[in-house]
């Protein structure tokens, strides 16, 4: 129940619905018991036990205490029926049937209202749980997802949360209604026969114990099902993202076999889980009927041989006994659901309780402008065991452009990740205007920076909405101005709906150069004082590179820029070029100075492989 307690805290904002549900369930339990008790006078009328005109019934009974309460209420009701019917049995029967119908109507109305109110609670918890998961997902640092499958995260937010609704939250319906129904029904049963009720409760714990044995392995099986679902969703996500490569390399069969193998495992685990779960209902029903059978034997003897109970009371008692079995079965089913839901809750809570290692310090300083310089001192960083940056130093004054060059794996993009604080440094420090990054609010830090990456990350929306990610309140005129600076207005203007054109999933309706220019326009619209360009032209053809390069030059005017470059054309005019090799600085200076040294930089220029 540990996980259930952690999930149930999401129900606190909806406690008013819980209170209304409890009130409705109280009435449901009362009317449920009364509807069976009302059968007694009806059966008495039907079978002539209280014939109209009998002296003992016509006389108004006297209340003699709780021990004779059942007989008092029975005789009082019979007295009222006979008074109303005036020797007409059919009239008495209609009155009693009308009462039974009204009680069953009120019982079902109370049941509907209970479910009506609990629906708002269940769906509210579901909504807030999903919102909390999504919020946590976007708050966690990039390092958290470096070894995680996207499909597994998607599975936790979708299917695992639904499993919690079907398992954990379904017992909210039972947590009040079923126990209340049982308690009120037991009270009614005790009114009819204390001896018979004690006999019943010798057998119910035995059947409950046998039922509980079935559900022990449900959590383990459920965990396997949910993990496998996360795995095949990951395969699906990777397939959709890499469809061009899969088709280009005729690898359809490879990915199909992986997916088929995963769904086969899911099939086997699901069968095992559901078969155990499905066993709960017939097992509990059979054990319930076994209890009823024993009750019929014992109670029948009390009616036929011992004369301790009349027939109509015994039939009503049997109805009440069955009225206990239904909620008891519901509670046993709910216990299976809790075991099954434990696995889903554990996976969901794993995300919610994951510690975010990159957080604002309590003494974080708000900062809205950039005045002097970016300083990087003695920087060391590693993703896992080996350092990818070693003893890195750099100083970038306001308005300057720093270029980082080197072969793949030399640590260039890592510096961009550290400047934006997607990762925290292991040693050394980065500061802006002499304030360490860790002492700045992340939101303020990133508001000072614009980012253009090698892969143009665009979203399935209009051009306008993609650009407004940089500035949500931007006007259309501001969008057009940004597009002109990014050398993108001409092609956008030629589109059927202009800036309101939808660009498709990941912007795939556009060419690589067009997507990159939109990425630049987005950064321009944000208008930050610091611009980070992470290999912004490396994936482009010559014509697109020329257009994008012009856009970059427009954007970098009067800004402080850090350019991670693959191609010489993007860095020739940089104020300082740092050459990296295996995470260490091997050369630095301006383009002409480095060419004169005839060292690593010159070799890279000659090879034109700024990878």
UniProtKB/TrEMBL annotation:
PROSITE patterns: ABC_TM1F, ABC_TRANSPORTER_1, ABC_TRANSPORTER_2
Domain ABC transmembrane type-1: 19-340
Membrane topology recorded in Swiss-Prot or TrEMBL: Multi-pass membrane protein
Pfam families assigned: ABC_membrane, ABC_tran
Name of this chain's protein: ATP-binding cassette, subfamily B, MsbA
MF GO annotations: ABC-type oligopeptide transporter activity; ATP binding; ATP hydrolysis activity
Keyword Cytoplasm: no
Keyword annotations from UniProtKB, A to Z: ATP-binding, Membrane, Nucleotide-binding, Transmembrane, Transmembrane helix
Membrane-crossing residue ranges in chain numbering: 20-40, 92-121
SMART domains named among the record's database cross-references: AAA (SM00382)
Species this chain originates from: Psychroflexus salarius
Locations listed in the record: Cell membrane
């Amino acid at each position: 129940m540990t996980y259930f307690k952690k999930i149930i805290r999401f129900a606190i904002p909806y406690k008013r619905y819980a209170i209304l549900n409890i009130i409705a369930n109280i009435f449901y339990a009362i009317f449920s018991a009364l509807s069976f008790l009302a059968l007694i006078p009806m059966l008495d009328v039907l079978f002539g036990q209280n014939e109209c005109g009998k002296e003992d019934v016509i006389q108004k009974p006297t209340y003699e205490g709780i021990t004779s309460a059942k007989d008092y209420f029975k005789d009082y009701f019979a007295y009222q029926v006979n008074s109303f019917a005036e020797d007409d049995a059919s009239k008495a029967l209609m009155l009693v049937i009308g009462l039974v119908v009204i009680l069953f109507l009120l019982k079902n109305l109370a049941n509907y209202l209970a479910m009506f109110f609990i629906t708002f609670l269940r769906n509210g918890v579901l909504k807030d749980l999903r919102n909390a998961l999504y919020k946590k997902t976007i708050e966690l640092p990039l390092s958290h997802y470096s070894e995680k499958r996207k499909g597994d995260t998607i599975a936790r937010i979708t299917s695992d949360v639904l499993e919690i609704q079907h398992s954990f939250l379904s017992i909210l319906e039972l947590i009040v209604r079923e126990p209340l129904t049982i308690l009120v029904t037991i009270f009614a049963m005790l009114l009819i026969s204390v001896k018979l009720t004690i006999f019943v409760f010798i057998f119910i714990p035995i059947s409950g114990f046998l039922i509980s044995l079935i559900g022990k392995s449900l959590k383990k099986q459920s965990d396997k099902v949910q993990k496998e679902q996360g795995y095949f969703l990951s395969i699906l996500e990777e397939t959709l993202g890499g469809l061009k490569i899969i088709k280009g390399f005729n690898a359809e069969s490879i990915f199909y076999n992986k997916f088929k193998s995963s769904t086969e495992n899911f099939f086997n685990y699901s069968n095992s889980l559901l078969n155990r779960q499905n066993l709960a209902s017939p097992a509990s029903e059979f054990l319930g009927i076994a209890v009823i059978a024993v009750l019929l034997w014992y109670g029948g003897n009390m009616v036929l041989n011992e004369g301790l109970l009349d027939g109509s009371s015994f039939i009503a008692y049997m109805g009440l006994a069955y009225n206990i079995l239904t909620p008891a079965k519901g509670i046993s089913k709910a216990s299976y659901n809790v075991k099954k839901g434990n696995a889903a809750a554990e996976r969901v809570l794993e995300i919610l309780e994951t510690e975010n290692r990159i957080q604002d310090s309590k003494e974080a300083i708000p900062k809205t402008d950039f005045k002097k310089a970016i300083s990087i001192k003695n920087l060391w960083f590693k993703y896992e065991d080996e350092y990818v940056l070693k003893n890195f130093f750099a100083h970038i004054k306001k308005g300057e452009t720093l270029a980082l060059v080197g072969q793949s794996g030399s640590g260039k993009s890592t510096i961009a990740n550290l400047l934006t604080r997607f990762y925290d440094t292991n040693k050394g420090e980065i500061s802006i205007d002499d304030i360490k990054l860790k002492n700045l609010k992340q939101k303020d830090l990133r508001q000072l920076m614009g980012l253009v990456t090698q892969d143009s990350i665009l979203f399935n929306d209009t051009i306008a909405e993609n650009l407004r990610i940089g500035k949500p309140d931007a006007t259309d005129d501001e969008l057009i101005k940004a597009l002109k600076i990014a050398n993108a207005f001409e092609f956008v203007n030629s589109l059927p709906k202009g800036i309101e054109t939808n660009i498709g999933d990941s912007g795939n309706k556009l060419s690589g150069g067009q997507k990159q220019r939109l990425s630049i326009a987005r950064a321009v619209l944000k208008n930050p004082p610091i611009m980070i360009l992470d290999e912004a032209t490396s994936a482009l053809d010559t014509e697109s590179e020329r257009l994008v390069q012009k856009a970059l030059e427009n954007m970098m005017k009067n800004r402080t820029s850090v350019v991670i470059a693959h191609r010489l054309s993007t860095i020739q005019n940089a104020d300082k070029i740092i050459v990296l090799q295996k995470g260490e600085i091997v050369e630095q200076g301006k383009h002409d100075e480095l060419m004169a040294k005839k060292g690593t930089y010159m070799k890279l220029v000659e090879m034109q492989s700024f990878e």
